[in-house]
Structures are given as structure tokens and as C-alpha cells.
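Summarise what follows for lecture notes:
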Amino acid sequence: MFITVAVLLVAGLSLLFRQELRDLFGPLRISHMELVKSPANRLRFEIKVNTTRACRTQLKYWIKGSHDTLYSTVSAEGKIHRLFMSNTRARKHYSFCVLATNGKRRVASKIYPVETQPIYQATPYFTLAYSDPSIAGDLAHTYFLTQILTEPGSVVIIDHQGDIVWYEAFLKGVKVSHWTKDRTVLCIVGPESIPSSGGDEIVELGLDGRVLLHLKKGEGDMDKLVHHEVRKDRDGNIYAMTFTAKVADLSSVKGLRQDTVKGDGIVLFNKRGKKLWEWSALDHLDPLSNPNIMIDKKDWGHGNALFRLEDGNFLFSFRDLNQIWKVAYPSGKVLWKFGEQGDFQMDPNSMFSAQHSIHITADGHYMLLDNGDKTKISRALVFDLDTVTKEAKTLHTVTLPAEYYSTVKGNTALFGKNRVLFCLTDPRAFLITTMDGHVLWKLQVGGDPYRLEEIPGFEITKPAF
């Protein structure tokens, strides 16, 4: 009996040793795969992979019966890998396999099934109301980022049909979101009790659900609430709009000798959350020059958009002033003001009011959403500004029908070269129009959207090897 046991033990060890030798000196193989479902997210799946040789791996997946194949990002060189399916739709049957290469050999795993479940978290719903056939080619493989401000909130990525393909849920509301050049999602998160699209947290998420950066008011260098805007600059630093306050003598206008005026500012953090710079608009405004300061002192100017230029300076939008400021970095000097009572000569018909979403287009022009508080008509405006002669030339005026007037929030951007993307809060609609305002695509939104962004680079449709 003892001899039999010994023989079996030796045989088992011999098999194990031979297997280890094959793994060590044999060809590349995928030796283990494990599908991990996240109970907190119905559309995201992790696949853990072990390989016998150091290599790179990539996930290939598709809806069963479909010819549209998707791919994950490529894992780092190694024997242990984590891959993620991060572009899926609810209630669908998918197939997937793992590809691996070490430069000399390329192998693929068997094909496995996975089924996505209905989303149960608080996410907005979208209804495709209209899509003109002429835009079908441009919409294919196009995705958009948006959010839900109420509690509980979420940030979502949708396709052109309004189907959610990625999301992250929060207990708090997601006040605004931004797609970065690093294929990450930046959010301002906060309770509904914080006004003006404000929050007490800045969160950066990877598409795999990892929290890459988390700043919270009262911790580290984040000492102020943020609102309306959070973005990355070209160096990877994070900038946001802040609430600021300043003590002023308002006794001459029936206020207090030490009264408080509230306004807006800018904060700049590095990649690790260390504060690099901050600025306050209140240092450049005289309260006594405002005849309505006793009314406006609770929210003077109402900043609502911030954009960093390639020269390092900032564009700052003030809704209640109907102005865009250019703020110098790092001096903080206000270089010019554009809009009502500003520094530029401009066509009176192009004067904007309660505007949002100031930014620079790919060809270097200034674009904004004119909410149209004074005209009750919303439109997109594109300008060429001559900052030497202080002349503003209106390049495009994209006027929407009266039914799409939005009193608050919203944004606009070029979609391609000759179409315009709109997010309109009051009518709860996302639109793509021609340059003369003809609607080509309309998505109805179940909730009050703040912003919609087209997000390049989200979908990976080609294998890396």
C-alpha cells in the first residue's frame, strides 16, 4: 500500500513538474480565465487572465449575432492580467475571448458567453425622437457623456440611439462631467443642497471603474466648494470654478460696514491634488459700482463656464454680467471683457445674454451658447476676436426654434465641421442641427441635463495586435 501511494505521489509530482516545465519553456498559452461580475455595475465586467509567458493581452467582445466587434485596452506586459468590458448595453447577450501576444506568438482563448442585466441604479432615460437619414453615417460609432444632477446621481455614456453603454452611480448628484484626453471621466459631485451646480467633491474615474483621483472639501488642499466646471489642461492639471467671498464696506448703500459679497473664482490642482494657484473675481470688481449690489451680493456675476487656453490663460463666463473675461495666468489680471459693456466692438444682433459653455473650437474661434435671457431665443454663436483692435466678428449664428429656448444651464459645440451639438435643459433635449438651425437629430431626456459632450476615443474597434 505504501509503495502504491509513493508511486502515485511520484507520478503526480512528475506531471506537475512537466506542466511547470511546459509553462516555463513551452509556447505562450492562456492558462486561466475568470469572469468577475460587479454587483454595483450591470454593464462592466472584469476578466482576470493568467498566461504561461510574459505577454500583452486584449479582450475581444461582441453582441451575439452582431458583426460589430469591440476591444478592450491592452494590458501591460506580464503573466497576470486584468481586462475590462466597458462598452456594453443592458439586456444583451455578448460573446468574448482573450487575445494574447508576446511578439513572437499570438494566441486566442475559447469563446465564452456573458449576459448584461437591466440597470437598477438611478440613471436618466433617453428617447430617440428623430434622426435624419443624412446624419446616420456621422452618428455611427459616436458616443456622448452626460450626467444626472439629482440625488442619487450618475454619470453616463450613451450612443446615438440613447442607449447607455457605460455608467457610474453616486449617492450624491453629479453636477457636471468632462471627458479627458486620457480616456477618463472627471466629475463634480455634491448634494442637492449645494446650489449653482455645486459640489464638495472632485472625482476622476477610469472606464474600469477605478477612482483615479478623489478630492473632497475639507481634506488636503481642497478648501472651497466647486461648481459648474471641472477640466484638465494640457499638462494634466485639474482646474475648476469655485465659490469665493469677500468682506466689503456696504454701509453707504444701506449694508453693513463689514458685509459679505459672494462671487466666483478659479482653482488649479496638480495631478496629485495639490493646489497650485487660485483666483477670485471679487478682487477685480468694485461692489459700490454695482447699483444692485444689495441684491447681487449673494451671487455676484454667477460664473458658469471656465476654459483654459493653450497660452495658459483662462476664459471665464459670467451669466448675470453677460460677459466673458480673459484672465491671465499666473498674474490673475483681467486682460479683456467680451460682451455687454465689454471691450470689443460687436454686432448688436450678436449680443448674448445668460450665456454658457464658452470654449475654443478646433480652428481657434470662440464659441458659446447664448441662452437668450433677453430675447427668449437660444442659439449658438461663433466669433473671431481681434484682441489688438478689439473687434468681434460673428462667424456663425445658429438660431433654434422658440420651443428650444432654455433659460438656464446647457452647452453647445461643433459636431464635425458644419453641424452643431446642443444640450438644452428646459426643453430636456439633446440636438444636432445644421448651421442654420435645422434639427437633424433629437434625443429627449428624462430629467434636467446640464451638459452633453461628444467623446472621441471611447470605442475601440480595432485589435492592437
User: Anything to note?
Assistant: The chain has a mean pLDDT of 94. The helical segments are 2-25, 136-139, 293-296.
